[in-house]
């Protein structure tokens, strides 16, 4: 009798132990999380219990998910290591990054990152931000409706966007403003400089790369042995920088090509467009280049050196530069 009573007791104990062992699995990450200026990173980052910073929310957000901003706030610098979207529409979503990078992307080769509606600010000159966005690895980065300003860290930093992928990657910048980045002799708006065997495909669409303290857009193949780098700039304004568009391809490196379509390159104090190196190429169609070289440096609108080329489809406006400079070949007929 005693033995028959023991058997149910033992079974019940085993079931209870099993329940205890499996009753508390790790909390699952959410596909959508939320941040608020009055949130708390100890929260689960739900709509009703939001986190306070991107760094606090990203660990609770599943790969491929997104972080949304409920209201305006200072959401802080963050490092991204997976596919994710930072979506902040209709609010002031600030990323203040004194003495550091605003957003660092070091993800897998298949990861896609999307950023929309941020104000990325390098903060006070006494403790300047390094780079607004620093991209090291990933499949793609899309930046939309975003302001990136005030990254004035010393070389090799000081860029609004430093795009330096170690693999093959794509950057799209749409309807954004990149301004007041860089220092007197380094940094600027966007640097495209893949490392090792990496390569870059870049689109800048309906954006303003303006008033940067050195370069507007720079493509530099130094140390790069990849499949080549191409940048297309469409319906955009590259003005008020020291140098507008610069392509530099040192010997024994891969090619760099910038195509300017229906854009403006104006009032850059040294050069509007520079193409320097045997594999450096700039192509223009429907683009106005004016007022460059006004700072007194006699290089002006178009400047090619070291075998670099600047080609035209014959439908551009080049005037008012000091000096104008010249295309390196006759107009290319449109087909």
From TrEMBL:
InterPro entries, per database record: Beta_helix, PbH1, Pectin_lyas_fold, Pectin_lyase_fold/virulence
Keywords: Signal
Segments forming domain Right handed beta helix: 98-252
Keyword Signal among record annotations: yes
One Pfam family it belongs to: Beta_helix
Stored SMART domains: PbH1
First and last residue of the signal peptide: 1-23
Protein name (record): Right handed beta helix domain-containing protein
Organism per entry: Sphingomonas psychrotolerans
Upper lineage: Bacteria, Pseudomonadati, Pseudomonadota, Alphaproteobacteria, Sphingomonadales
